Queue: 3 jobs
Job 1
Amino acid sequence: MRDNYHIMGIDDILLHDETIFRNLHAFDPDYIPENFRYRDSQMEALAVCIRPALMGGRPINAVVLGACATGKTTAIKKLFEMVEASSEKIVCSYINCQLHTTRFGIFSQIYHKIFGYYPPETGVPFSRIYHDIMHKLSTEDKALMVALDDVNHLFHNRNANRIFYDILRAYEAFDNLRTGIFAILSDIEFRYALDKNVNSVFIPQEIIFPPYSHNEIYEILKDRARIGFYDGVISDELIEEISELTFETGDLRYGINLLRVCGNLAEAEASPRMKKSHLEEAIKETACTNFKDTIRNLSKNERELLNIITDAGGENLTAGQVYEEFKRRTGLSYSSFNRIVEKLEFLRLIDTPFTGKGERGNARLIIPRFNKVDE
Ligand SMILES: Nc1ncnc2c1ncn2[C@@H]1O[C@H](COP(=O)(O)OP(=O)(O)O)[C@@H](O)[C@H]1O
Ligand SMILES: [Mg+2]
C-alpha cells in the first residue's frame, strides 16, 4: 500500500476528489444494514419474547446462540430500534459485555438509557443507582429488556450470576417490575458455561442463528457492495470470488473487510474499477487474521483434537478413531470429546459427515476444513 503512495505522489492522494466509495461507512464493523435478510425467523422469535412486555406482562428470557458474524448483534439492535419506535412501555438496553464487565459498568449503561446521562462514577453506592433505575421503571410502569451481548465476558470475573440476579429478581423489591434478558453467545461451549455461571434465575428460550449459506453470503456481500460502492465499481464475478473465500472462512466479517480493503487498493491506484489484482493483494493484506485468531483462542485440548486430524495427513478418520487417539493423548472422556467436536464444528474448523457405515449406519468422519495449521 505504502508503495502506491510513492507511485501516485502525496498530492494526488490528497487532492484527488473522485472516489469509488458511495458510502465509506458501509464497511464499518458496527454498520447496521437497512436490508437485513435471512433472519426473519430469528427476528420473529426475538419479537415474541418482547411481546408480553408490551401488553403488561413479563418479557421472555432468551439465549441467542450462533457463530461469529451470523447477525446476532445486528438483529438485537434492529429489534430494539423497532420496539422503541413503536412503544413507550418498555426500555431496551443493549450492552456490549466486552466493554462493560462489572455490575457498576452494566447498570451505568442501563441508567444512562433511562435517565439520559451517566451516574457519577464515585461517591454514589451501587444500591442507590440500582434503586433509582428500578424505582423509575416501577413508577412509570415500564418493563426492562437487557441484551447482554457476548455475555461470556462476564464469566471471567464471576459477575454473571449476580448481574442476572439483579436484573431478573428486581420484582422482589419493586412491585410488578417486569424485566428480561437476552444473553448473546458466539461460542457453543459457553452454553454450558452459562448454566454453570448463572443458576436457576435464568431459564431461557434458545434462539439459534445458523451460519449463512454460500448463496446467502453472496447476496449479502452484493447488497453491501451496492451500498458502499458506486455502480460498476465491482463486478459480480469479483463479489462471487469474495463470497467463496468468505464461505470458506465461515466469517462474513472477513468478506465485508475484503470489500473495503479492495476498495482502498483500487482507490489508491485511482482505478475506477476493482480488479482481480486488488483482491489478490487484499487477501495478502488481511491474511485470514480471523481464522488465525480462532485457532489461537482454542484450549489445549481443542488444539490437540485438531492436531490429531491434521496429523492424519489427509487420510479421513472416523469419530471413533479420532476419539481413541484423543483419549490416549489427553485421557479425557467421550463426552468431553463430543463437546469439543461440537465446538470445532460450530467454529467451522471441521466437518463431521455421516459415512452411512458403522453400527447403525451412523458412523461419522471428522475432517478438517483447512490445510495444516501453520502458526
Ligand atoms: N443478514 C445480513 N444481512 C446483511 N448484513 C449482515 C447480515 N448478517 C450479518 N451481517 C453483517 O455481518 C457483520 C456481522 O454481523 P453481526 O450482527 O455483528 O454478527 P454477530 O453479532 O452474530 O457476530 C455486520 O457487518 C453485519 O452488518
Ligand atoms: Mg455480535
Job 2
Amino acid sequence: MTAPDREDGVPWRNFYGRRHGKKLRKGQKDLLATRLEALAPKGVTWEENPERRPIDLRALFPNAREVWLEIGFGGGEHMLSLAAQHPDVGIIGCEAFINGVAMLLSGIERSGVTNLAIHPGDARDLLDVLPPHSLGQVFLLYPDPWPKKRHHKRRFVNPENIDPLARAMTPGAMLRVATDIGDYARHTLEVLERNQNFEWTAEFCRDWRAPWPGWPSTRYEVKALAAGRAPYYLSFRRKC
Ligand SMILES: C[S@@+](CC[C@H](N)C(=O)[O-])C[C@H]1O[C@@H](n2cnc3c(N)ncnc32)[C@H](O)[C@@H]1O
C-alpha cells in the first residue's frame, strides 16, 4: 500500500488522469449532490478509514451472490449493462473523472438498476480495503494507455496494483482487460505472466481477438473501432 504523507497527515497518491471535464449541467450536479452518497461504499477514503480496515461488502450488497469490480468505468455504459444482465450480482465501479460519475448516475436514474455501487475516486484506495477473496470478476476496460516509455509506470497494470487485486479476487475469479493499444496488451501479458496468482486463459487467437460472452462494449471501444484499431480482449484466471 503506497501512500506518502501529506502535510496535514492524510496520506495521498499521485493521480495523473483528469478529475473534471466540461462544466456539469444542473441536473448532473443535482444527481451528484443527492444520489452519490447513498451509492458510495463507506470506509474507502483515508479520511473515513485511516487504519484501512476491510470494508463490509455484505452490508453493501446484502442479497448478491457475488461482487464484481469495474476499474475506470468512463461513462458507465458497460456497468449499467452488466447490472441489468446480472441482477443477482453486486457491482462496484471506480471512476476518478467526476463527469463520468455524473453520466453513470443519470443512467442509474433512467434504468432503475439497484445492484451498483460507485467509488468516485481512485480505484487504488478501494483495493486497499477490499476483503481478501471477495471479488468474483474484475473489469479493466480501455485503461489510459500512457504511451510514452517514461510514463509506463503510470499504467494501471503494474505489480503495485495487480498484487492487491490478486489478494481481493476469489480463486477462479476472472480478470478481464480490454485495450486497443498493442503495446498495452503486451505490457499486460508481461506483468500478469510475472505474477504467480494469474494464468492467461487464451488457447487460440480467437480467444483474445473476440470479446468474452455478454460483452456490451464501451464508449472507448466504439472510438477505437471507428478509428480502425482492433481491440485485444485478455482474460486471466485467479489461480487457486
Ligand atoms: C480511457 S478511459 C476508458 C473508460 C471506459 N472504461 C471505456 O472503455 O469507455 C480510462 C478511464 O479510467 C479512469 N481511471 C484511470 N485511472 C483510474 C484510477 N486509478 N481509479 C479510477 N479511475 C481511473 C479514467 O478517469 C478514465 O475515465
Job 3
Amino acid sequence: MIDSHSHIYCDAFDGDRDLVVEHAAAAGVTHIVLPNENLASVARVVDTRDRWPEMMSVAIGLHPEEVKGDWTAQLEQLRPLVEECGAVAVGEVGIDLYWDTTYRAQQLDALHEQLRWCVELGLPFILHCRRALDDCLTVLRRFGAGDRPPGVFHCFEGDAMAAREVLDAGEFLLGVGGSYTFKRNDVTRRMVTAVGLDHIVLETDSPYLAPVPHRGQRNESAYIADVARAIAANTNLDVVDVDRVTTGNARRLFKI
Ligand SMILES: [Zn+2]
C-alpha cells in the first residue's frame, strides 16, 4: 500500500519515528509521500525522506493555511526547491476557507502560481481543498483542458456529485483516508462506491484523522490498512484488490 499523504516529518513523531516506519512496513506500506507545508518545513521533509529514500518521496509547495502576507516571497524561495529536492509533486497547495477567508484572493493566486510550476516541471499537484471546491476548480479551469496538470484532491470531502464534477475536470484522483471509517460519514462511503477505485488513492494525513478503531489517537501510515479493509468491506471487494488498484493509481500519478 502507498500512503499518499503523511506528515510523519512533523514533531508529533520525533520520539518514535523509526518505530512508526517499522510499523508501516510491517502493515504492508511500501511507500509514503510527504507533502510540505511552508518554507520552514522543507528541511524536515527532505531529511525524513533522505533517511528512508527507498520508501519515501517528497512534495514541495505552500499549504493554503500558510498563505499570508509573505506568500510571494515564500513562493519565490520554494520554486527552485521543487527541483533541487527531487519532489514527485507540488504540494500541498490549495484553498482552505474553513477557519479563515481573509486571504482567499491570495490563496487563489498562490494556487494558480504553483499549478503553473506543475505545468513547467511536468509534475502532479497535491491539493488541499476545504470548503473551497468551486474556487479550486475555477483556478484549475484557468488552464486549458490540454495543459491542466494531473493531481490528487487530498482528503476529498465532497459527495458523489462533487466527485463526478472533479473527475470530469481533469486527470484527477481523490484521496481517501481515516474519515472514510467514521460512523457518520456515509457521504464519503457512498462517494467511493459511486466513483469506483480507479479514481482513489489511500492516505493517512497523519498525524491527523486516524481511522476507526484508532479514532482520536495520533494517526500513522500503518493505519491505512484499516481504511483499505473498510473500503473492501463496503464495496464487496477483496482487500488485496483495493490495495492493488489504489497503489497502481498512486504509482502512476507520482511515478514512484
Ligand atoms: Zn496534509
